[in-house]
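Appendix B, Record 12. Input sequence as logged:
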Amino acid sequence: MANFFVNKSDIDGPAARIAGEEAGHISRVLRMRAGEELTLCDGEGTFYDAVITDIGRDEVLTKIGRAYPAPTEPGVSITLFQGIPKNPKLEFIVQKATELGVTRIVPVNTARIVARLEKESKVQRLQKIAAEAARQSRRGIIPQVCAPVSFDKALELAGELDLSIIPYEEEAGLSAKAFLRGKSAETLGIFIGPEGGFEPSEAELAANRGVVPITLGPRILRTETAGLVAAALALYELGEME
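Logged structural output:
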């Protein structure tokens, strides 16, 4: 069944209004009609079974049935601290991280980045990509794509989380599996370097601030691969891929 996001303020008792791009997608792309069923999501983790009662070009009205917690949201909230890569890699990362179940993507200005993410319009585009991926993968929330932060600010944000890891090519002893197995956490941070990786001083600073260096194996992964692998491993080891 098709899944669409609505503002919670547009849910009024047994009725809900769908507007904007979501309404246009229903009417012009999917060409749905009154009487057809769909699933609504309020973006806060609740799904609603609904039936279209009236459909226009820019507005769709529905009747709501059952409300229930989104079964697609993991129990652990993952923040991906991503060293800013060249375009279009960050768009790919945002899309796939959303599909996997990541809650927040924070672009990070690190020492070795060769690209910048300075325009607000670029962050808005990334947020739109997250919304589209959330709809496709039936997420219960739309992950937040934050404005870029400094590496020190990223470490400050990580300090608010239960656990944080930093896959680092110089770490050979501690695997993600060994560190995460048997642990429980409500919040987890994952630090990923840009194309050139982290400076040794950055990895050392992260470790001193409580971010645990781990290895993802003997092969060096690209920046657009490493975060997705780390997130998938974390979700698996924390029992969220069953």
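The chain has a mean pLDDT of 94.
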